[in-house]
Amino acid sequence: MTETEFLALADQTLGAIEAALERAANDSDLDVECSRSGNVLEIEFVDNGSKIIVNSQAPMQEIWVAARSGGFHYKRINDQWLNTRDQSELFAALSRMVAEQGGVAVSLGGQ
Fold it and tell me: Count of domains in the chain?
């Protein structure tokens, strides 16, 4: 994939994550605020002040996630963002991370 293609896909993915979090917040007791600056999406949990940071890394063609549970790298494989260590899918993993940090079970779905 070219860098231009990656940047477009990463931008679409960050937008999909933000939209999924907004839906989850509207449909549940999840209290999050999202802010986006370029290739960085910051997810702040209002109740406890913790954050999850999601950003794209164009040189590596990866999406990186930093959460309380650790740092994770996701690479695009077969139309999915998969963890480079355990092959978990990005949206499923983010659902778990959001539930852990926000105290509310959510399913962010996929793209």
Answer: 1
Residue 107 lies in a domain: no
> 75 and 53 in contact (C-beta within 8 Å)?
no
Examine residue 79 and state whether it is found in any structural domain, yes or no: yes
Half-sphere exposure of 88 (CA within 13 A, CB side): 13
Per-residue pLDDT of the chain (111 residues; tens, 9 = 90+): 999 999 999 999 999 999 999 999 999 999 999 999 999 999 999 999 999 999 999 999 999 999 999 999 999 999 999 999 999 999 999 999 999 999 999 888 765
**Residue 111 counted as domain residue:** no
Residue 12 lies in domain? 3-102
Burial string for 43-81 (b: 16+ CB within 10 Å, else e) reads bbbeeeeebbebbbeeeebbbbbebeeeebebebeeeeb
